[in-house]
UniProtKB/TrEMBL annotation:
<dbReference type="InterPro" id="IPR012667">
    <property type="entry name" value="CbtB_put"/>
</dbReference>
<dbReference type="Pfam" id="PF09489">
    <property type="entry name" value="CbtB"/>
</dbReference>
<protein>
    <recommendedName>
        <fullName>Cobalt transporter</fullName>
    </recommendedName>
</protein>
């Protein structure tokens, strides 16, 4: 009985860590794609948000 409880806790912890890693990668990817994109349409769409986050854009 102790072994199954220990396995469940380990699996649950590793799934949570994977979810956090995926969310962080997606979030950083969106920030850097919007921040460093040379396309004028994307730049204009993200311009105000970048200034509120103190992200340099010009």
């Amino acid at each position: 009985m102790t072994t199954s409880t220990q396995t469940f806790t380990t699996t649950r912890t590793s799934e949570g860590a994977k979810a956090i890693l995926v969310a962080a990668c997606l979030g950083l990817g969106l920030v850097f794609l919007a921040g460093f994109s040379p396309a004028s349409a994307l730049h204009n769409a993200a311009h105000d948000f970048r200034h509120t986050q103190n992200f340099p854009c010009h």
